[in-house]
Task: structure prediction
Amino acid sequence: MRIKILCILVLACVCAEAALRPAVLTPGVSAGPIVLGGRIDQMLKQYPDSYERVRHSEPKKVFGDIFQISPKQDILFDEIYYYAGTAVFCREKLIVAVLITYKTALLSINGSSLSLSRSIDYILILLGNKGLSVFKENGNTLYLHDTGTALFDDKSDGVIDMAGVFLPYK
Result:
């Protein structure tokens, strides 16, 4: 399933002409113009073209069902909107998470903006260990921070290959 989503994101990145490309990820708050907790219909009014939608009849889990890991808490969703390099996850028409596959975005941490092209270690130092969960599987690593940050390191080579923000755990 993860491979399927990544292939769709790469295909969307190559084929789509979407203007939606979040430049700054703010954990627990937003991904550029995409506000976590906001309504998807508002975003679709701003960015009506160049997306694919996948709808599920029953809620799925972002980390459990897509990435086959079991964090202490997960994010439920019933729709995904794919733009070029961006996946927007919704639950009952509310935006609950955003994942991106490009490295030109910045991650805003404690008032500082860091390039996602920086090493994973540097970003983890700024995020801190408190609230950090690390999942390793098949040579890949996923870092989840309870502030609402997800960092994906394929091949565990210290490079961020995908990043995301989500509503923080309550």
Remarks:
- The chain is about 20% helix and 40% strand.
- The first strand starts at residue 24 and ends at 26.
- Residues 140 and 157 are 8 Å apart (CA to CA).
- Residues 3-18 have pLDDT under 50 and may be disordered.
